[in-house]
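Q&A log
Question type: sequence-to-structure
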Amino acid sequence: MTKNRCAAPFGYTMEMGQLKVHPHEGEIVKAMFTDYLAGASLKNIAEDLAGRGVEYLPGQSDWNKSRVKRILEDARYLGAGQFPALVEETSFTVVQARKQERNDRKVIQPESHISLITIPVACAACGTAMTRTHHTRRKITEAWDCPCGARVWLADGDLLAGITEILNRLIADPALIMEPEHETDEAQQLEVRRLQNEIRRQLEGFDLDRDTVQHDIFALAAAKFKSLPNRATTEMLRAAFEKSAPLNFFSRALLEATTTQVLLGGGGVFLKLKNQQIIGKDDENADDSPLGEDRNADPSQA
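Response status: OK
Response body:
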């Protein structure tokens, strides 16, 4: 069936001056909506159409994501004006919502520079892991969301620069790394006392079970060791920064070797080192960082 593409979009044909559904293309348009709702991406649909040699213009079948996107967004397929309906309104509405959702929550691609951060990014307010989201309609398009409701707007480049600034601060002055004040957990103290009393009771008894006593002695040693401050870790951290040259670029290796979490909130970026010390870009932001954040504040909207 010959059709005038200038007068009719894909899926329709002009016959005697009237718009009608093209029998073959109309089914393809319906399938595009169905496939997208089933989970196919714009790229998947474009590759499928191109692979099958479906022509959108005579002799042209090189489909791409943009062409598929335009069709999925075209309200004429609902039956607007002179166009016969090809797609149900419910399906069209759901497709638009799904597209927006996918756009707002893009997966970080492996080649993206933000993927260099391989340790958890967590909320400074509650310590829960945060999820990076993408919002195309804002000046700052990247945000980090926490299940607690906190949201931190921070461009990827600014996050990497903030981390690098803290690492360089520690390279310049490793003495900033200190042994955090150690507070023995009450449960650990109770366990130590329980094991001490149990060992004493067994040693003073008449029916000594050597294997049980040996097991409890080892358990006591482990409990006492767990309650000790980890000075070795602090020394290891200082040595790592002393050996490192100032960074001109973000260093994934140094971050992984010294840090357990990147913390966002309290107005800045913080690193939680492997000795549990929290440190920021300056003295005001170092250790005991302010917890909490303007939960939905977008600096680009101020």
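Response note: The beta strands are 12-15, 18-21, 121-123, 131-134, 142-145, 151-153, 259-265, 268-273, 278-279.
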